[in-house]
Amino acid sequence: MAAELERKAGVAFIDEDYELAVDLFSKALKISPNNAELLASRAQANILLHNYLEAVGDAFKAIELDPSMAKAYLRKGIACFKLEEYQTAKVALEKGVPFTQNDPRFAKLIKECNACIADIDGFGCSCSGKYCITVRRGASTASAKPKYRHEYYQKPEEVVVTIFAKGIPENNVVVDFAVQTLRVAIEVLGETSYHLLLRLFGKIIPDNSRYAVMSTKVEIRLAKAEALNWPSLEISDKSTDPKKRQIPSDQRPTNPSSKAKVKDWDKLLAQIEEEEKEEESKDDATSSDMHQKADADTQRTKNKKFVVEGRKVVEGRKVVEGNPLDSEEARPKDISDLKWNKMNKKATAYIRQWIDTSSCHHMANETNAHNL
């Protein structure tokens, strides 16, 4: 029965009906699950259908069943290369070379792998284990419901993946760690095989990762290469690499503040000085004009008023050492306060000048009166 299905699958393959070929090979494998030839043939059909992940799984199992099957190594290498896992592809091809009869395809693919590895500067998986494969973003994945449920949680230094498989003997569980890949295979005689292939969100350290088979579950601990948070277990099209956010050296982080915005006092002072220059020119012209037009009695009244008020201001003023804007309490809250401080200071200077001038005039008048 399996032989007949294999023959029909071969005919479908020749007719380039690869989907039918995969279906027939799968039916034959249900009858003869440990047939390495069937697995290698289905791997080739999956490659032509661009189902590279499934092709790697078939080739991997075929190699386990027959470690001397050269075409299984070749198909694993091709599928890994298509998935851009050049280091893994190279390892598989190099392992298959001793079982070939100078097949030029191996040498050609190994050369291409070396070129790609050099171009991407070690981006691909660097493990040397028997299985290391990652899923290309956007690649198709199996839509069938998994046999066992799995979930994960993480710590700063590791990610813990739990597969809820009860009563599985430890010898029936195979776990392979790669730099950014996790593969789990559970084979139980008389039951459907379970395969879990994950392209991890971040990179791990395979040598520091471990797993344990318990009575109710399989617990896998993945050692993170970097202590970064993973938003998800698997990488996807919308995922981004978990890179640390770098702050440029010339851009210091700002602390949160209750202030609406930072005030540029130098700019405000320059603005005020510019406004004062315009106001001074207007005020001086107005005061000079009014003083010249006023009669002698009015001028004497103004002088007396300025003298009296000036003495009150000078006697009651408080001397403040240092810059009043240096302290947080004395700092003006807005531009109007800043203007008032400057105007008050300037008014005091004007009044003192009026006092000195008026005193001189008063003394001169007394002297003249005495002489008369």
TrEMBL record:
TPR repeat locations: 2-35
Gene3D superfamilies, sorted: 2.60.40.790, Tetratricopeptide repeat domain (1.25.40.10)
Residues covered by region (Disordered): 235-304
Keywords, ordered alphabetically: Repeat, TPR repeat
Listed GO MF terms: protein-folding chaperone binding
Any one biological process term the GO annotation gives: response to stress
InterPro entries to which the protein is assigned, alphabetical: CS_dom, HSP20-like_chaperone, SGS_dom, Sgt1-like, TPR-like_helical_dom_sf, TPR_rpt
Biased composition (Basic and acidic residues): 235-244, 279-304
Compositional bias (Polar residues): 248-258
Record domain CS: where: 145-234
Record-annotated SGS domain positions: 254-342
SUPFAM superfamilies, per database record: HSP20-like chaperones, TPR-like
Stated family: Belongs to the SGT1 family.
PANTHER family: PROTEIN SGT1 HOMOLOG (PTHR45862)
Name of this protein: Protein SGT1 homolog
Organism: Vitis rotundifolia
